[in-house]
Design goal:
172 residues, alpha+beta, five-stranded mixed beta sheet, 7 helices, globular
Length: 172
């Protein structure tokens, strides 16, 4: 079972407090939204237990599912920066509130070495990771996560690919 930590809301100073953001509520809202949403990026690596850090969340969804995801996150006071139509044209958008969620909206994305990665194929190979007894999150398979890390190919993506390859080699 994935170990999730819920931190109390400590007071640092009378004017500065941490956010009351609830990651479990986010994951539950996404899971219950009806959107075909894959957690990608470093949050997916963290969910796999890899020792990386990030400040945001990343999801890959088909364009038609953007309204479902947006509506599901509205009760968490999280709002999209673009309409579904604008997101479709731009290929991505952000949902913001107490946290930042990058949303990739594309049927397929090319890697730096010219391979096309098709959402429907990745969706068919998805895996579910348990978060609580009654909640799981969908992420791409390890091989597909490696491909998603080849979309931008930043230096940290190369590090993430090495972590994922180690994890893949350790699995029976």
């Amino acid at each position: 079972m994935l170990r999730m930590h819920a931190l109390a809301c400590p007071q640092y100073h009378r004017y500065v407090q941490t956010s009351p953001f609830d990651e479990i509520a986010l994951f539950r809202a996404v899971a219950d939204s009806g959107a075909r949403a894959l957690l990608i990026g470093r949050r997916a690596l963290i969910a796999l237990g890899l020792p990386v850090m990030t400040r945001d969340y990343g999801y890959w969804i088909p364009a038609d599912d953007a309204p479902l995801l947006n509506e599901a996150l509205r009760p968490l006071d999280m709002f999209p920066t673009r309409s579904p139509e604008e997101a479709r044209l731009n290929g991505r958008y952000v949902i913001e509130g107490d946290e930042h969620i990058d949303v990739l909206v594309a049927r397929a994305v090319g890697t730096i070495d010219g391979n096309m990665v098709v959402f429907e194929d990745v969706w068919m190979r998805r895996v579910y990771l348990p978060v609580t007894e009654d909640l799981s999150i969908a992420i791409p398979s390890i091989d597909d996560l490696i491909l998603t890390k080849r979309f931008a190919a930043r230096p940290r993506d190369a590090d993430d690919i090495r972590w994922l390859e180690q994890l893949r080699a350790a699995k029976p």
